[in-house]
Write a structure and sequence with these properties.
Radius of gyration: 29 Å
CATH architecture of the domain at 363-473: Alpha Horseshoe
Strand content: under 5%
Helix content: over 70%
CATH superfamily of the domain at 363-473: Tetratricopeptide repeat domain
Strand order of the largest sheet: 3-5-4
Number of strands: 5
Largest sheet: 3 strands, antiparallel
Structural class: mainly alpha
Shape: globular
CATH topology of the domain at 363-473: Serine Threonine Protein Phosphatase 5, Tetratricopeptide repeat
């Protein structure tokens, strides 16, 4: 019988030349990395700090040598917590210094491969350093290295064969995080390399800013570049990149990312003494605050942006700030203030001949009428706005108008019209790739289909809406959707689950200062307590809702009055609230 020989190597080309049968040894996953850590440090110690243990193995990229070194360092210092070790390893500047013990060293292991690389391969290897283990394209590596892409592709193939990087099925390159640390240490001219890296992504974002899906794939790298530019105080480049990313953040509802970017844009405008740009950045920050439900901070940004815009004569920006302040005023039921600001917006947009602005103003006037129970006016204003937006191709405006038209149709019992508007909104949001409005369209359809008795479809749309709103961080609509889920679950006699959703919605609305939404939710909370046979709590809930409803001039007071008058029977015999859904 022939003998078998087992060889290990990091060089795939060498194994292929030897005509060997190659068996890839995959990297450790989290479970096996933790098992290695526990085997040395001890199961009890790791279990006591499970979160820190996971952070350690993730930070070192599950590299067995690194995990073993960390484990033996922890054994050597039993007084040191795993959390402290995790915090030390989080410092990328000194990470490789800490991953050494006696004759074991991650840096030394990497140096063996580095020393035999020719200059061309070294240049490509170090060009991956700024990516810090994020995936990137061949083109990005070529631009950062300052080398022709064809040569870079050849180098990448060789480096992959040497196990110094990986290439996935989408032809994206990635370095192990510790190799990326090592690569940054080898960079000869960090400033020049970083400048090429940033220039590539600025140009990419500007070129593709009308293609949000394309840009979104590179968002992690773009945000890293933006953060580096801000740290280096390259304010002109910060402003250019934020402007290019602005439409992408809005289309994909990346509000947390946008908030960071706009804050840097404010700093950039301040440093450049550009008051118009500062006003615009503050107003954009205010918009994000509105979407995230942080109305106090949003109001501060919008007021500051409005003042800066007024001082520079930027009337369109003044109107934009006022329009967003209207949104907050409506959410907080300050309807007279909202009406006053809408009139000011209308005058500015009219003087500028801004048809899109006038249409948006009409839509908000429709929302004011809707909140006041004047559905005829709400429907008329919204139809007029939609016609203008349709002619001008204002997709975002159309989506807002379609949602309000669906709400108004639901409030008047025209479920055919409501379904038509909701489905048109969903189709338009999908076509335009607008993630925020797509979530709102699912929410609207959930309500329409619940009212039509199509509870299965309603539940599906509500779940999709909640997932999307949760990803974007839109707390107002998270609360609205929790309310809608509660009503759907209640219709299915899943009372406990329905009550849980309603209470979550009510708490969130109280935090946000959304009294209108909270009043509507209190009807549902009371109904569910009554359905569980707890009439005492139900009556107390309805009374709280009635008091608040009177305070804010809620248009459906009778929903509370009927329930309170009918407590001798059952709350389930009372009529439901007239409004189809919470959001307007």
């Amino acid at each position: 019988a022939g003998a078998a020989l087992l060889l290990t190597t990091r060089d795939r080309d060498l194994a292929a030349l030897a005509n060997a049968q190659i068996v890839e040894v995959p990297p450790l996953d989290a479970a096996h990395s933790l098992a290695l850590l526990r085997g040395i440090v001890g199961a009890a110690r790791c279990a006591a700090e499970a979160t820190a243990a996971l952070a350690i193995v993730q930070t070192v990229g599950h590299l067995p040598l690194a995990v073993e070194i960390v484990a033996r360092l922890l054994v050597r210092a039993p007084w040191q917590s795993l959390a402290e070790m995790a915090a030390r390893l989080a410092d990328a500047t000194h990470r490789l210094d800490r991953l050494a013990l006696k004759d074991m060293s991650v840096r030394a292991a990497f140096a063996v491969s580095w020393q035999v690389l020719p200059a061309g391969l070294r240049a490509v290897f170090t060009a991956l350093g700024p990516f810090r283990a994020r995936s990137c394209t061949f083109a990005a590596v070529a631009s950062t290295a300052g080398i022709a892409q064809a040569a870079v592709e050849d180098a990448i193939a060789t480096l992959a064969a040497l196990s110094l990087l990986t290439v996935d099925s989408a032809q994206r390159v990635r370095q192990h995080p510790l190799l990326a640390d090592f690569a940054r240490e080898q960079i000869a001219d960090a400033a020049a390399l970083e400048a090429r890296w940033a220039a590539h992504y600025i140009a990419f974002a500007i070129e593709h800013q009308t293609d949000p899906a394309c840009v979104d794939v590179e968002m992690d790298n773009l945000l890293a570049v933006l953060e580096q530019l801000a740290a280096r105080r390259r304010w002109e480049d910060v402003a250019r990149l934020v402007d290019a990313l602005h439409p992408v953040w809005l289309a994909h509802a990346h509000y947390a990312q946008a908030a960071r970017g706009y804050a840097w844009a404010v700093a950039a405008a301040t440093a450049r003494d550009d008051e118009v740009a500062r006003a615009q950045a503050l107003i954009r920050l205010g918009f994000v605050g509105c979407e995230l439900g942080d109305f106090h901070t949003a109001s501060e940004h919008l007021q500051a942006g409005q003042v800066a815009a007024a001082q520079t004569g930027a009337d369109t920006l003044v109107a934009e700030a006022l329009f967003l302040r209207v949104r907050i005023a409506i959410e907080q039921n300050e309807l007279e203030q909202a009406d006053e600001w809408l009139d000011a917006c209308h005058r500015i947009y009219g003087a500028a001949g801004d048809a899109a602005g006038l249409a948006r103003t009409q839509r908000e006037q429709g929302l004011l009428a809707y909140r006041g129970g004047d559905y005829t006016t709400a429907f008329a204003r919204c139809r007029e706005a939609l016609a203008i937006q349709d002619r001008s191709g204002d997709a975002a405006g159309m989506l807002a108008s379609l949602r309000l038209l669906a709400d108004t149709a639901m409030a008047t019992g025209d479920l055919v019209q409501a379904l038509e508007c909701a489905q048109r909104g969903l189709t338009l949001a999908q076509t335009e790739g607008r993630h925020a409005e797509l979530a709102e369209a699912h929410y609207t359809l959930a309500t329409v289909q619940r009212l039509r008795g199509e509870l299965g479809e309603a539940e599906t749309h509500a779940a999709e809406a909640l997932a999307r709103f949760t990803r974007s961080g839109n707390r107002s609509f998270i609360a609205y959707t929790l309310y809608e889920q509660s009503v759907i679950l209640g219709r299915q006699a899943r009372t406990d689950a329905a009550l849980s959703c309603a209470l979550q919605a009510c708490d969130m609305q109280q935090t946000l200062g959304d009294d209108y939404g909270r009043v509507t939710t209190l009807i549902q909370v009371g109904d569910l307590h009554a359905a569980r046979g707890d009439l005492v709590t139900a009556v107390a809930t309805w009374q709280t809702g009635l008091d608040l409803a009177r305070e804010i001039r809620y248009p459906h007071l009778q929903a509370f009055v009927k329930r309170l008058d009918a407590t001798s029977t059952t709350a389930r015999d009372a009529e439901p609230a007239q409004s189809g859904q919470l959001g307007g």
